[in-house]
């Protein structure tokens, strides 16, 4: 029989143990460390979930198949990304604060429903398949939306773990006075209003206006913000979240393309050169969407007092040494 101390030691083996060269995970009840190329258990679990959910999304027809596979597919994807970050850096979003991850899943539901509301005006995408406006359908849809913020943060932290990101830590600073930062927030509000008034021409502001509103507010209230970093000449968060969201966008569009119930786009004068269902220029919208997601989440987290736990480490920080 295992004693309480033995059991505790075994459970502690589930977490990365850091040394000077490489974060090493140890298998519970064993002394031999996992090889460098093996994912932590959450990553392996994520691979298993994706390996099951992805083929099922091809086999199961209609809305039932889409609703039953979208969430597990992205949950597995998030676990894989978290496992990769954990293997590379010795820390991860789930390790640092599982509560924040849970908050991300909850906050993502109204966050994406907001974009669905904006889309009622801009009409940039439509869902293909039978309409089913039941309560169960809305709950299933909300569950699918819940992965958005966590996926963007996980992929962005993974991008930020690579060595190339360090070159963006000492770029020219964006010098802004308090009055100018306030003006940016006002510009964001005006751009959002303009989007609603002239959606045919200004629909790209869907992915910019909220960033211009909330990131200045975050900076002025002492919450984590992009502005606070670029004022110091550190552009790593900008690059990491832009590329992280772009990577998410690629997988969203790829998995959307293989299902019978999916969404299609209408970008008016920009509707050309499709990759999967998305016009190629539309992928550019994912770049500011990453920044927008960062800003909106930190605003919401700050309102509820959660921002102190949601720092995103970047390669080049004192504790981050992965190449």
Task: Describe the 3D structure.
The chain is mainly alpha-helical and 323 residues long. The chain has a domain at 97-309. Helix content is 59%, strand content 4%. The protein has helices at 4-12, 41-59, 62-89, 93-96, 98-122, 135-145, 148-160, 178-197, 199-202, 209-220, 226-230, 236-257, 286-303, and strands spanning 125-128, 262-265, 274-275, 278-279. It has a two-stranded antiparallel ribbon. It has a two-stranded antiparallel sheet with strand order 3-4. The longest helix is centred in the first third of the chain and has 28 residues, at 62-89. It is globular. Mean pLDDT is 82; it is low at 4-33.
Provide tags for this entry.
323 residues, mainly alpha, globular
Range of helix content: 55-70%
- Count the DSSP helices: 13
Q: How far apart, in Å, are the first and last alpha carbons?
A: 42 Å
Rounded radius of gyration (Å) = 21 Å
Order of helices and strands: HHHHHEHHHHHHHEEEH
The total of beta strands comes to 4
**What low-confidence regions span 5 or more consecutive residues with pLDDT below 50?**
4-33
What's the overall average pLDDT, rounded? 82
Q: Describe the largest sheet.
A: 2 strands, antiparallel
Give a short overview.
This protein has helices at about 5-10, 40-60, 60-90, 95, 100-120, 135-145, 150-160, 180-195, 200, 210-220, 225-230, 235-255, 285-305, and strands spanning about 125-130, 260-265, 275, 280.
């Amino acid at each position: 029989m295992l004693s309480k101390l033995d059991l505790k030691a075994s459970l502690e083996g589930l977490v990365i143990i850091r040394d000077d060269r490489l974060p090493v995970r140890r298998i519970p009840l064993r002394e031999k460390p996992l090889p460098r190329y093996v994912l932590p258990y959450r990553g392996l679990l994520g691979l298993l979930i994706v390996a099951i959910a992805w083929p099922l999304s091809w086999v199961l027809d209609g809305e039932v198949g889409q609703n039953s596979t979208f969430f597990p597919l992205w949950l597995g994807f998030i676990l894989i990304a978290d496992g990769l970050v954990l293997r590379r850096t010795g820390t991860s979003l789930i390790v640092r604060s599982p509560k924040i991850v849970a908050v991300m899943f909850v906050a993502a539901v109204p966050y994406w429903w907001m974009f669905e509301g904006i889309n009622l005006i801009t009409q940039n995408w439509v869902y293909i398949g039978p309409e089913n406006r039941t309560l169960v359908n809305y709950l299933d849809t909300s569950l699918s939306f819940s992965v958005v913020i966590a996926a963007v943060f996980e992929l962005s932290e993974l991008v930020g773990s690579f060595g190339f990101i360090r070159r963006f830590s000492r770029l020219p600073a964006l010098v802004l006075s308090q009055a100018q930062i306030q003006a940016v927030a006002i510009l964001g509000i005006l751009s959002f209003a303009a989007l609603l008034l002239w959606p045919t021409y200004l629909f790209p502001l869907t992915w910019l206006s909220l960033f211009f509103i909330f990131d200045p507010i975050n900076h002025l209230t002492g919450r984590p913000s992009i502005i606070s970093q670029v004022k110091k000449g550190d552009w790593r968060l900008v690059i990491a979240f832009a590329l992280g969201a772009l990577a998410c966008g690629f997988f969203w569009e790829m998995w959307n393309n293989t299902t019978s119930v999916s969404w299609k786009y209408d970008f008016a004068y920009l509707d050309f050169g499709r990759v999967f269902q998305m016009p190629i220029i539309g992928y550019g919208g994912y770049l500011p969407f990453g920044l927008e997601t960062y800003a909106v989440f930190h605003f919401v987290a700050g309102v509820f007092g959660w921002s102190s736990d949601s720092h995103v480490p970047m390669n080049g920080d004192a504790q981050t040494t992965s190449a």
